[in-house]
Amino acid sequence: MFFLMNPAVAHWYLPVLGLAAGSVFVRRELGMAQPFIDLRVLGGNVPLLVTFTRQCLAYTTSYAFFHGYSQWLQEGRGLIASQAGLLLLPLSATAIGVTALTGRRSRVRGKLVVGVLFQCLGCAALSLLHADSPIWLLVVLSAVVGIPHGLIGLANQNALYAQADPARMGSFAGLLRTFMYIGALSAAAASAVFFRDGATSPGLHAMAWSLLGVAAVFLVLCTADRSLGRGTTPGEATPLPAKGLIRSRRTWSGVPG
To answer: What pLDDT, in 10s, does the model give residues 177-196?
Structure first.
């Protein structure tokens, strides 16, 4: 994180130390009968690894919006903290509404594709904001960005239920949450890089373009993943060629909290 927040050649030793520590951690966890993080669940399950990657990418964009947009509202747009907070309420309202309307629908790919397209729309809108952008536009933007919040997290959870070994469902669910927070850490590093001189409009625009690239990778993963052809509904069994029949559990809201 120190390196990502302030990347420089002079700090080359930081990622090296991180990789070395990570290697020791992986070796230790693989040698434990009851590891802290069961890394064995990652082996050989490519669709699940893709789901974890999608989770990381999705929440990199989501949390970057939370971190970056709220800071810009105060520093770039000149609002006070309470006003900036109120402008994020439409996001939560839309996310809750979308989750309620689509939560029982079984198709996963459609939710992911629609969600990432709205992420792209939100990122593109960020690149157009300026210090004199009208309040109504900021409200609409917050509401639009709430749509992927209500779709993507829920869809990734349903995909997990179809792809995971039921005997290790707890480990898989925990790792899905872990990859979500890896995305949050990536978003925090992006805020540090693009807002080095404060949450200015040019910094927000540069972040928006980088997030658009992240969303584009997410879209490619959604369209290329053939394992998303079938959806899962809470309480229904889903046939899988390699894993047999598993029963998906109740999902929770996709809104990060």
So the answer is: 999 999 999 999 998 889 98
